[in-house]
Amino acid sequence: MATPNFWKQFQNRKRKSISLNGIGSSELASKNGTPRHRFIKPEPVLYTELLVGGFSVKLPPNMVPYTTQRTMMAKILTSLKNKLNALIESPTGSGTPRHRFIKPEPVLYTELLVGGFSVKLPPNMVPYTTQRTMMAKILTSLKNKLNALIESPTGSGKTLGLLSATCAWLVRYKEDRERSKAECRACNGHASVSLESVPPGHENTVGSWLASSSDSLKLSAKTSTDLPLINKPLLTLEDEFDSDFASSPGSAPTRRSSLFLAEMKRAKLEEGEGEEKGAHEGHTCLPRVAIYYGTRTHKQISQVVSEFARLPYGHDGTIKHTILASREHSCINLPVRSSGDVNGKCKELISAQGIGCAYKNSMRGKYERSAHLRRLLSQSLQSPNDVWDIEDLVNALKASTPTLCPYFSSTRVLTQDADIVFCPFSYMIDPIIRDNSDVTLKNAVVILDEAHNMEDVCREAVSFTFTENEIVAARADFRAKAAEVHNALEKTVRKQVAYEGLDNMDGGGTDRMHDALANLSTNFKTLNKFMDDILEWFVGLASEVAKRPASREDRYTQTFSWERLYASLEEAKLVIFGEKGKTSPYAFLLDALGVVAGQTGDEQDYDMQLQHYKPLSASIICVEKFLYFFKAYFKEDNRTVYKLFICIDKPFVPFGSRTRRGDTEELPAEVLDVSAFGNDKYEWLDSRSRLSGYNEIKRGYRVTLNLWCMRPALAYLDAFKDCRSVILASGTLCPTATFRSELGTDFQQMMEGSQVIPANHIFAAVIPTGPTGYHLCGTYRNINGDDRFVREISLVLKSVCEIVPKGILCFVSSYRLLDQIYEFMETAGILRQIQTMKRVLCEPRRSSQMNEVMAQYEEAITNSECYGPQCTGALLFAVFRGKVSEGIDFADDRARCVFSIGIPFPNAMDEQVLEKKKFNDDNCVKMRILTGDEWYTMQAYRALNQALGRCLRHRSDWGAILMADERLLQRRSNPHAAKVSKWIREQLRPLSSYKQFTEELQHFVASMSSNSSVNSEDASPDEASNCNSSIVDS
Questions:
Q1: What's the rounded Cα separation, in Å, for the pair 967 and 977?
Q2: β strands within 570-724, DSSP E
Q3: Compositionally biased, Polar residues: which spans (predicted)?
Q4: For 1-42, how does the pLDDT look when each residue is reduced to its tens digit (9 = 90+)?
C-alpha cells in the first residue's frame, strides 16, 4: 500500500495541531445540509509534546523545558500515579530553559471536540455535517453501551467517521481503564501478568478433551480482566491452526478443531461459572474492550485500512491493529502457493507428519510475542507509516530478517494486543468460522460496514445444505477407516499373544498401541452408527419426495414444516442434543469426532501411525455440519425457526462446485471402492466410486437437503449478544424497520444522513409514463402480459442513451427480464439504434466473466470513438442484488446515469421466499416481527436503494437517477414511496409529462458537461480529503 501523501508531506515538519473547538457555529448550510462555505479554520497552534514517565505532556509552543522542570514533572506524575504526596522546590526563574534538547518530530492533525471526546482527523480536514452527526451518534452509543444504525450516503465520509469516532472513544476508555486498574484492590493485591509476558496460546489455560466419552472437562478460569482478543485454549503456535476458510479448487475447507474448542469454551461458561466468578470476585476495574471492524470482502478491508492510515491513531501507537485474513491472501511459501491448494498444502506441511514450514518455524520464541513482532514489522516496512494492510504485511515479513509467516503473524500473534481487528463478516457471524478462529466478541465494539444484507448473511450462517453424494461418501470413508483400524487392532492382539510371558519385549509399545487402536475403534463405531442413522433419515425423506409429480423444470421438491422435521428426527433417533453434560448423545459424538480427527486424546498415542487412520477433511466436515445444525436447532428451543426443503433435480453446475455451506467435494474412488462394505445396506452407485448394494434415490439426479433457518436473529444474537455495542452502517440501510425485528435487537441510535453532493449535481426523477403515454408499472402481469411495457421501456432507454454521455447502468429485477428486454430490442431494431450511441453489455451470470465485461465497459467509456463516430460510451444491463449492484465503484464517467426498471421484489415463487413469508405471518405477533408482506416489501426497496447508490460516488461527482415505475411517485396514497432513501427523495423532481423529463434531463447534462468545476480533479484539498473516505461498496 502506498504511503499516504500527508505523511510524506509532514514527516519532516514541526509538530503542529489544529484545534477546532466548537466547530459548527460558523457553518452556513444549504437547504440539503451541504455546507456552501467551509468552516472557518483557526490558526494552527504550535505546541511541544514531551514524553515523561509514559505520559504525553504538552507544553507551550516552541518551549523546551529545563532539566529541573523535567525532573519536577517526573516526580509529580509518579506521585499522582501512585497516590503519593510530594514536596517540590524549584528556584525562581527556572521556567525558562537555558539548555535546549532535541525536539520530537511533529505530527499534523485536526482535532475536533464532539460530545466531550477529542476526535482526531486527517490534516487540514474539516468534516461534513453528516460526518459530525455520525460521530456524535457513535460516541453516544459507545459511551452508553447502545447499538446504532448509521445510514450515510456514498461520498459522505462514512468509513472515516466510523473509524475516527470509535478510536477516539477507545483512547479515552483505555485511559479510564488504566485508572480503574490502579484503583482496583484485587488487581493491586495480586501480581499483575501482562499479555506480553504470557506465551501465545497460554492466556487461557484449559484442559484437553479426554479420549473417553465418560470423562469430564477439566477447565480453569481466567484470573485477569486482560482478556485476549483471540482465545487459544488448546493450541499454541506449535500446533496446526484451522482458521482459514477460503475455498480452494483442490480441497474442502478444513474445520476440524472448531467444534471442539467452541464446546470447551461453552462448557467453561456452563460448568466453571462458579470458579470463574470466584477468580474475578472483588475486581472493580474495567474489562478490556477491542474494536472488530467487519466488511463483506477482503478487498474492502484494504480500503478501510487505507482510511485508518489517514488518522493519527495508528501512527502514534495509541491504537494497534491487525487483520484476520486467509492463507490464500497471506502465504509466502512458494511451493505451497504453487500447489493450487494453499490451505490444504499448508496444513499438510505443518502437521505432525509434515516437513514443516521455515517461515512459521522462524516465529518460535521471540516472535510469538506481539511486541517483538510489531517492532520488527515497523523496521521492515521502511516507511513512516505504521499502518499496514495484508499486502504491506506480506511484503514486509517476506523481506524481514528472519522471514516470518504473515498468516500466523496477523491471525495468531498480533491479535494478542490489537485494539482494532479488521476482518470479513464471516469471522464474526458464521459460527463455524468464528469458533475455528477463536474470535471472542464479549465486551467488544463491533462495526459492520456495508451491512445492508445483514439479515441474509445471518440467515445463511445458520442454514445448512447436504447432498446425497456428500453423506454417502462421508459414511464410506468412516467405515473404510474403521475397517483399517479393526485390522490393525487384530494384528496387535496377535502380537500381544505372541509376546505373552515375555518381560517388556518391546518396552510396552504394543500394549500402548493396542489401547490407542481400541479407543479409536470404539469411537469409529459411534460415528458409523450416527452416519447410518443420518443416511437412513436422508434416504427416507428424499424417497418420499421422489414419488411426487415433477415440475415443468423436471424438479421434485417438497418443504417440510418444523413439526414434520422434528418428528422425522425423533423417528430416526437423531434427537441427540437433549440434556447438558457428557451423558448426552451430542457429547459422545463430539468426543468421538475429536478422537478420530486427532484433535483430542493423548498426543503420544495419536502419533504418525494413527495419523494414517484419520478420515478425510470432507468427511469430518460433513459430521461437524450436522452437529452444528443440531446445536443451533435444539438450543433454546429453536426448532420452530427451521424448515426442511428437499430438491431433486438435474445438475446444472460443473461437478465439484459448491456453495459456502453446500456440498463438500467428491471423495476419491479408492476411498469408496472397498470390499468391506459388501453386506451394507447403502452404497454409492457412482461409476467412479461404486459400493455394491446402495441404490441411488433417483439415478442421474442430484438430491439436496436444505435446513433453512427463517430467523436471522438466531445467528446475530449468538454472535453479538455479549458485545458492548454493535454499529450497523451502510450507504443504504433504508428501510430500517426490518433490522430491529429480524435481528432481534433494539438499535437505540439511528441516523439517516443527508447527501453531501450539491443538489445541482443530482438529477433524480420517477418516470411514470413513456413517450407514447403508456403508464410504466413493472408488475409481473404487465411485464409478461404483452410487449407494451417492454416496448415503452426500450424507447425511454433509447432516449436516455441519446442524452446522457459516458456510462449508463440499467437495473432490472431478474436475468429473465434482462433477456426479455434485450431480445425485444433486438427484434424491434431498437438495439441497433442504441448501439450506434453506446456499446451494449450485459451482466454475466458467472462471476468468472465479470472482470472481462467490466474491462469492456470501461474501455468503451474511455475510448468511445473506437466504437463508432456517434458512440459516447457504454450501456450495461445489470440485475438487482447482482454482481454490479454492489462491490464495484462506478465513480464519475463510469455511471453518469442509473436507470432502474420496476421494483425488485424477491421472486414470489421461490420456495425459500414463500416459506419466509409464511413464517413471518405465523409468528409476527408472538415474535414481534414484520408480517410476511411487510418483510417482502422491505427487501424490494432495500435492493432498489442499493442499486441507485451506484451513481454519485463523491462530492464532485454528478449524475442522473431515473426510476421507471409510477408506483414510486411520492403520493399520499403510496405509503411505500417513503422507503426510498431520504437523500433521493429530497432530490426528486416533479414531472408533468415525458417531454418535460427529456428537456430537463438535456438541460442538466449540458450544464454539468460544460462546468469544468465538477470534475473530481478540481476538488479543493479539503473536499478531496473527504471525497475518498468511503469504501467502494458505500
A1: 7
A2: 642-649, 702-709
A3: 1023-1034
A4: 444 444 444 444 433 333 333 333 333 333 344 333 333 344
